[in-house]
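hey can u check if this looks right to u? its 607 residues, i copy pasted from the old doc so theres a chance i mangled smth
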Amino acid sequence: MNRDPILLEIVEGTLASVEREVETAIARTARSPMIRDAHDFRAGIHDRRLRKLTGRSYSALVQPVARDFPVETMRPGDVYFHNDVYLSEGGIGHLPDLCVTVPVFHEGEVVAFVQAFGHHDDIGGAVPGSMPSHARSAFEEGLMVPPIKLYDQGVPNEAALRIMIRNSRMPDSLAGDLDAECSACLMGARRLADLFARYGRAAVEDCFDAIIENTTRTFRRELLAKIPDGTYVWEDYAEHDGVDPPRLHAQRITLTVDHAAAAPLVIDFTGTSPQAKGPINHAGDYADGVFLKKWLAPVLRNLADTPERAAELDVNEGVVPLIEMRFPEKGTLLTPVFPAPTNARTFVILRLLGVLAGVLAKATGGRMPADQETIRYTGVYGEDDRGPYLMREVLGGGSGGRPYADGEDTVHIVPDSRNIPAEFAEARWPFVVERLGLAADSGGPGEHRGGLGYDKHIRMLRDASYMSIADRSILSCWGVNGGRAGRPFRVDIDGEELDGLVDGRPVRAGQVIRIRTTGGGGWGDPLDRDPARVAADVRDGKVTPAGARDDYGVIIDGDGWDERATAALRERLRATRPAPAFFDRGPGFPRLSGGRTAAEVDRPPPG
C-alpha cells in the first residue's frame, strides 16, 4: 500500500489529541488530589496487536487484559480493570495504580485500546495511602484485583465496585476517580472509532505500522549510532528497604552494543541484588520486559544532536525491537517472587533510569546528564472537623547537569506530575505551608550545576501523622565527568531527622516538618564553571557564598566576585584537591559500601 503522508500526519495527530483529551477529562472530573491536582496518572493508546502507539508519556500494558479476556469475546461498552502487580505482565508497579482499559470497535471488531492508570488515594492495606514502608508481603499493601470486566456492554459491575470502594479509606475519592477514568476512556474510544469510520481500517492500521516503524528507524539512525560497539557496566543502589538496616541494594546493567545485530542493545540485569524483604521490589521480568523497554528508552533521547531534537522524539512500541533484555533468575529486585511487597518499587524502577544513563555515559565519554532525582511521596494524615483526611504529594527534585547546560530545578520525573499548590493545601488540610522554595546548595557542583530540590516547611495546626516513601536519603545523585554529587533527601520535625521510609510518625500541633528534596548531580569540574555564573547563582539564592567558595573556588564580593582572590583560590584548589573522578557518588556511598570504591563495584561480576 502506498502510504499517504498527509493521512499519516492526521492519524498521528489524532492519536496524540485523543490521548491528551482523555487525560484532560480525567484531570477535570477526578476527585482525589493525587489524580486531579498532582496529575499522577497516564493515558495511552494501543493497537489491536497490543502495541503502544503514543509516546508523550509511558503507560501500562494491555497484555494482561488480552491474556484473560480474548479479543473476540469483547463487546462495545466493555471496560476492564486491574491493579494486581504480579498479574499485570509488568505494567503495574504497586497496588495504588489502578488501570482501566477500553476496547475500540470498528464494524464489530476490536481495532485498538484506550487505557488509563493512576495513583489513587487508598486501596486498603496496613496504612492510609496503601504504601506501608515496612511491608513484608503484598497482602499488607491493599486489595489486589486481577483483570476483571468492570463494565459489561455499558453496565457497571456494581458488586466489584462496591468491594473496591469498601476497602478504601477514601471511598468517595476512589469512586469518583474510577468513574472519571472509565468515562474518559470510553470517550477516547468513541473518538478513535470515528477515525476508523472516516478513513477505513486498512488505511488507519497501515498508519499505525508506519508510526512504529518510523520510531524504530529514527532511534537506530540518530541515537543508537552514537554508541560504540562494546560492553559497558554500571551499578547503582537503593540504600534501604524499610525492613533491614540500610545497605546497598544493587541494580546492575551490563550493556552490550552490537550494531550488526537485529536488537543492537542488550541490557543484562545479572548482578542485581536479591529481592528485598521490604517493598522496594519491582516485578519487571514479564512479557519479555516490554514495559521496561519502553520505560528506559527515553534515556536514549539524551544522545540526540540537540535538546530540541530530543524533545521531538516520542517513545512508542517502535523502541521494543531495538532492545533485548536479559533477567536473572527469580528472586531478585527485578524478578521478585509473589507475594514480595512492591509498593516502594520506585526505588528500583526509577533508579534504573540513572543506571542506564551511567552506563551510556561510560560508553560515550560522558555525553549524558549526571544523575537525576527520582521520586518521593510525603504527606500527613489524621482527622479534622470534616473527618479523616489524607494529604499526600509527589515532591520533585533536581535533574542532573548536562554537557551543554545546568540541570533543571524541582522537576518531577513522572511526566506532567506536580506538587500540590500551597493555597489549595492550606484550604483543604489543617496545616500552613510556611516555606516552599529552592534548597540552596542542593544541586551537585559542576561546570554545569545540578538542578536544585525543594525546601518545604509545613507547620501542623492539629496533631497528625507524617508518612514518607523516599530514597536518596543517604546516597546522593552522582556527578559525572568531574562533576560532584548533589545533596540527598532530608526531612526533620523540629530538628529531629527522620528516615526516608516512615509510616506514621506522630506530629503535634505547632510542630514544623522541614523537607529538602534531592539535588541533581553536577556535570564537569566545578572549578571550570564561569565565576560570573556562580555569582549569578548566589544572587538568585541557588548557591550560598560559602558554597561558592568551597565548591567552586569563587570569592563573592557584593553582587559579583573578587577576580584576584578567585584566581588564587582556584589555583590552590587545583593543586591540593584530588583529580576529579569520572563519577562522584557522594559521601554516603563509602559508608554503605563496606569500603569498596566506585571502581570496584563497577567491575563485571565473576564469570
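The chain has 15 helices and 23 strands.
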